[in-house]
Structure formats: structure tokens, C-alpha cells
């Protein structure tokens, strides 16, 4: 599914020269597993997810996604692979406020050139599953933060990705909404058979995963 082989990511900074965001990270994930990664701000959690999604490539080492080494793929090929097989959930939702719930969820299909009754049925199914089917035509700007994140999760799952990557999916929510969103996310990936890798600062939410890994100053401990 996803494998890192001695992956390091180095950024050049004007003030201090080279800075390691990740150091010699190695792991492999299995189908259908949920994995939480915990660590302080700046520890390398988001960098790891960006590499896993092919948004960035490693400085050294190899990132394998579905058996394809991403560092050998063109940016266009990585984008297509991410579009077709990876779902992304972020802390700040990234919904388009002038669009309805339905149209926000539909975006991945529209980008992929998919339209029609099957797409609409899938959108209705997901909005019903996240408890928002009756608000499908409302603009998302009328939603609460927890409701916006539920729409973002539905959007990420629309095209049935084999891998879902979530970057602090509850980080912009209060405790009650955060737990509700986390429970919903885990239930949905279990139903869909999707592998989930999520980063969080919450030990409580990390404990809900099949496995919890820790990252410190770019060094990953898979326990």
C-alpha cells in the first residue's frame, strides 16, 4: 500500500542552512489498517503526509505508493495517482464557500471528468452517512466547523480511494466535535475498506487507531 525506505527530506533555509524535516524514515502499511502518527508541531508529521501523497518527493530514499516509487514519477503522474487512489483530509477543510455541499463533494469527480447518475448517487450516499443529506443544496458557508469537516471527509471518500491521508482532521474543532468527527472518520474507512494514515496531536484520538507511531525531530518510531 504505502512504504517508505530510508526516506529523508531536507530543506535549505536562508538563516540556518540545511534543515532535516525527516531523517531515515522506514515503514510499510497494510491494507485496511488505521495508523495514527503523533508528535509536536514541527516534528515532521505534515512533511511525511506530503511525501506519502506525492505532493513532494524525498531528498533521499524511496516512497512507494501501490508499488510505484513516487520519486521516479513525473509531477503529472503523481497528480493522477493521487487523484485516482488517494483521499486527503486537512485541518482547515478547504471547501469552496460559494458552492453547495453537493457540489463541494462532487469536485474530485468533476476534476476526473466523471458525471452522471452514479456520481450523484454516491454523493447522496456519503452525505446521508455523515448526516447532511437534507442540506445537500445549502452553501457550505452556513455550516459549523464540525459539519464542514464532515463534508470534507465525504469529498475525500467520493472516488473510493484505497488510501486516506488526514492531517490533523480534528485540529480546528472543539473536543466534542473533534471526537464526533474522529469516530465518523474511523467508521467510514472501516466500511469502505480504506487504509487510513492520520496525524494528530491528541493522544486520545491516536489511541483509536490500530497502531500509533511517534515522530520526534523527523525521526519516526513505529514502536
Write the layout of secondary structure elements.
Elements: E1 2-13, E2 17-28, E3 34-38, H1 45-52, E4 60-65, E5 68-69, H2 75-85, E6 86-89, H3 101-111, H4 117-129, H5 145-157, E7 163-167, H6 175-192, E8 195-200, H7 203-206, E9 211-216, E10 219-221
Parallel strand pairs: 3-8, 3-9, 6-7, 7-8
Antiparallel strand pairs: 1-2, 1-4, 4-5, 9-10
Helix pairs in contact: 3-4, 3-5, 4-5, 5-6
Question: What can you tell me about this protein's structure?
Answer:
It is globular, with a radius of gyration of 17 Å. The longest helix has 18 residues, at 175-192. With 223 residues, it is an alpha/beta fold. 40% of the residues are buried. It has helices spanning 45-52, 75-85, 101-111, 117-129, 145-157, 175-192, 203-206, and strands at residues 2-13, 17-28, 34-38, 60-65, 68-69, 86-89, 163-167, 195-200, 211-216, 219-221. The strands form two sheets. Strands 6-7-8-3-9-10 form a six-stranded mixed β-sheet, sandwiched between helices. The chain contains seven helices and ten strands. α4 (117-129) crosses α5 (145-157). The model has no long low-confidence stretch (mean pLDDT 93).
List keywords for this structure.
four-stranded antiparallel beta sheet, 27% strand, 223 residues
E-strand count: 10
User: Pairing-aware structural class of the strands and helices?
Assistant: alpha/beta
Biggest sheet architecture: 6 strands, mixed
Work out the strand percent.
25-35%
Uncertain regions: pLDDT < 50 for 5+ in a row? none
Query: What is the element string, with H for helices and E for strands?
Result: EEEHEEHEHHHEHEHEE
Distance between the termini: 19 Å
Multimer state: single chain
| Mean pLDDT reading | 93
**Major sheet strand order:** 6-7-8-3-9-10
- Give Rg in angstroms: 17 Å
Helix content: 25-40%
- The rough form would be described as globular
Number of continuous helical runs:
7
